[in-house]
Amino acid sequence: MRTRAPTIGAALGLLAAVLALAAPRPAAAQTVESQVQSAADRLDQDRSQHLDLIAPRYFQRAAERLGDARQMLQQGGKIGDIQKRLAEVADALTRAEKLEDVGNLLLKDALSARSDALAANAPQFAPDRWSDAESSMRDAGKEVEDGDQNDARSKASEASRRYRLAEQRAIEVDVLGRARSLRDSALQANARDRAPRTLSRADSLLSNAQGILANDPSKQAQARTLAEQAATQYRHARRLAAVADTFRDRDAGIEQLVLRSEAQLGRIADSVGYDAEFDQGLAPVADQIAASIRSLHEDRANLEKTSASLRQELKDARGRTDSLESRLAELGEKQAQVSAELQRRQRREQKLREIRAIFDQNEAEVLLSGDELIIRLYGLQFPSASAEIRPDNFSLLTKVQRVLREFPDQSVVIAGHTDSRGNDDYNQELSTRRAEAVREYLMANMALSGDRVSAKGFGESQPIATNDTEAGRAKNRRIDVRIDLQGWEGS
Q1: Are 161 and 137 in contact (CB under 8 A)?
Q2: φ, ψ of residue 410 in degrees (nearest 5)
Q3: Rounded distance, CA 40 to CA 83, Å?
Q4: Phi and psi angles of residue 461, each rounded to the nearest 5 degrees, phi first
Q5: What is the largest CA-CA distance in the chain?
Q6: Among 55, 96, 206, 350, which is least packed, fewest CB within 10 Å?
Q7: How many whole angstroms separate alpha carbon 473 and alpha carbon 417?
Q8: E strands, 355-477, where?
Q9: How confident is the model at residue 253 (pLDDT cuts 50, 70, 90)?
Q10: Helices marked H in 49-195 — which ranges?
């Protein structure tokens, strides 16, 4: 059977269909998308004001209706049905927002205790107690919704108590957990019989750390120092027990013998400026001492070589008479070097002024540190405990892209930093995730080679302000974009 050639009418119909598929969506569909996003933004804002705790049922209803609206939008549902769900979201959030003031009053202590428990990483280190506290808080919020202030206060008091227990447990696990684990290991190695003095010293340090936390949980740093010292001594006791097991005579005299050997080696370590710890045995300490002595010998040999060279140069200098022409030539060369350096600095300062003009005062601080240009992005804010880049940060990151285009061949490090609240390891991991998120965003929006831009998290290790105030902590929670200017042609 022969296939007929398409008619002109059929071709025109096909063209119309293609154009229809390529045409933009109706304005109403675009409007409902913005309405869904606005509802989501309002939900997030209310969550930041703790309305998910103050009015949990209203908030839950709003979240569910918003989820329905999003699903309908994705599946091409009717605009009227989507807007009906959005109206239900707005109604539930309005009801919740009306309870904000009374809820903050009735749940004030519980909300404060919850904040402290979060700072101690209670969800990670005390998950069961945290879950109990959250359940009590939701019960208190339901009483706020029901208008029963007396029951709301009573259940909020219980929630506060449970949050404090979760906070205390989290601090204990975080600060004392490793030392306790090492103590169990030492006891399993029979350190009570083989190394009783070292074990007793470790127990005393651990007990002091526990006492500090029991009396004043805010003194975590002091307790952590003692717990780390206890951990070192528990490792030491475990090693001594292992050494003692190699002898038939397993009384405490073996420990005394080893301790005496360590003391003698420790005196040698002190003489070369090395603070010896023996929890890993004698060999690492001896190796470090030997390395220090070798380094001292090398330093001495280098000094003698330098001294001989200087003496020879002095002797040669005395045998020469510098001519005026030679002096003038040297001065001219130095003048040229100074002039070149001045021009280089002027170019850098001009570029610095241009880049500073790009950012508003509350967005970023631009500074020059040696051969490194640093853009300190105070305006780049992340949700708590999150590495998500929000749309309201896009304009600031667009300005960063503009700056990077000024240095097309320079290497860049995206450095993430946190404040000192929370666990050190968690802060390190969070700062790394945030730095990686910024790097990925820039890589996705610019033609950058992967080996040119790197990301690194520094946790709370490099504060630029005090962590004792909210303003200082806000400065420490930052992303730094560090551009290496070495070899920059503008220099």
Answers
A1: no
A2: -95, 150
A3: 13
A4: -75, -15
A5: 111
A6: 350
A7: 10
A8: 365-369, 372-377, 412-417, 453-457
A9: low
A10: 51-54, 56-74, 79-98, 100-106, 108-119, 122-125, 127-146, 149-188, 191-194
How large is the average pLDDT for residues 64-73?
93
Would you say 179 and 234 are in contact if contact means Cβ atoms under 8 Å apart? Answer: yes
Across all residues in the chain, what is the average pLDDT?
85
The rounded radius of gyration (Å) of the Cα atoms in the chain is 34
Sheet hosting strand 478-484, strand order edge to edge: 365-369, 372-377, 478-484, 412-417, 453-457
The full length of the chain comes to 491
For residue 491, what pLDDT is reported? 55
Would you state the structure tokens that stand for residue 126, as one six-digit string? 């005390």
CB-CB contact of 65 with 88 (8 Å): yes
Burial category of 60 from C-beta neighbours within 10 Å (exposed 0-12, middle 13-18, buried 19 and up):
middle
Q: Which amino acid is at 287?
A: D
B/e letters for 114-137, b = 16+ CB within 10 Å, e = fewer, are bebbbbbbbbebbeebbebbbebb
The identity of residue 215, as a single letter, is: N
The more confidently predicted of residues 415 and 251 is 415
Strand 372-377 to strand 478-484: parallel, antiparallel, or no bridges (unpaired)?
antiparallel
Q: Which residues contact 183 (CB under 8 A, 6 or more apart)?
A: 202, 203, 206, 230, 234
β-strand 453-457 against 412-417: which pairing, if any?
A: parallel
Return the HEC string of 177-233. HHHHHHHHHHHHCCHHHHCHHHHHHHHHHHHHHHHHHHHCCCCHHHHHHHHHHHHHH
Q: How far is CA 17 from CA 23, 76, 168, 355, in A?
A: 10, 19, 67, 50
CA distances from 112 to 191, 404, 446 (A): 44, 42, 43
d(Cα 346, Cα 348) in Å, to the nearest integer?
5
377 backbone dihedrals φ, ψ, rounded to 5°: -85, 80
- pLDDT tens, 97-118? 999 999 999 999 999 999 988 9
Nearest to 266 by CA among 276, 255, 280, 278: 276
Handedness of CA 59, 62, 64, 66 (dihedral sign): negative
> What is the pTM for the complete model shown?
0.43
